[in-house]
Design brief:
Number of domains: 1
Bound molecules: fe (ii) ion
Number of strands: 0
Shape: globular
Strand content: under 5%
Length: 134
Amino acid sequence: MYEWSADLEVGVETIDAQHRELFKAINSLLPGEGEASPAEIPGVIAFLEDYVVNHFGMEEIYMRRLSYPGYPAHKNEHVAFITNFYDLRDEFDADGSGPAIADKLARFLGDWLVNHIGKVDKALGAYLREKGRT
Ligand SMILES: [Fe+2]
C-alpha cells in the first residue's frame, strides 16, 4: 500500500487531487483493503493509463503557460515513464492479465510516482505557487 501523506503534497490543489486519485488506483492493484477483483484489474489498468496521460498533460500545460525553466527535464521524465508503462502493459496483455503482473505494475507506478513527486513535482509546485497558481 502506498500511504498518502502531507509531505507528498506539492501545494497545488489540482495536482495533489490527481496524485491522490493515482494512489487510490495503484493501491487497488495491491493486496489489502479496496483490492480490485481479478475481473476488475484490466479496467483499473485502463483507467491508470488514461489518467496518467491526462495528468502529465495538465502538468505540462502549466509548465508551458508559466514558462517553467525545468519543463524539458520534467517532460522527459514523463515520456520515459510512459515508455516503461507501455512495456509493462504489453507484458500484462501477453500474460493474460494475472495478479502477479498487476502487482508489478502497481509497484512500478507507485515507486516511480513517490520519487517523481518528491523530486520534480514538488519543485514545479513551488514554482507554480510563486506564480500565484494554487
Ligand atoms: Fe510530473
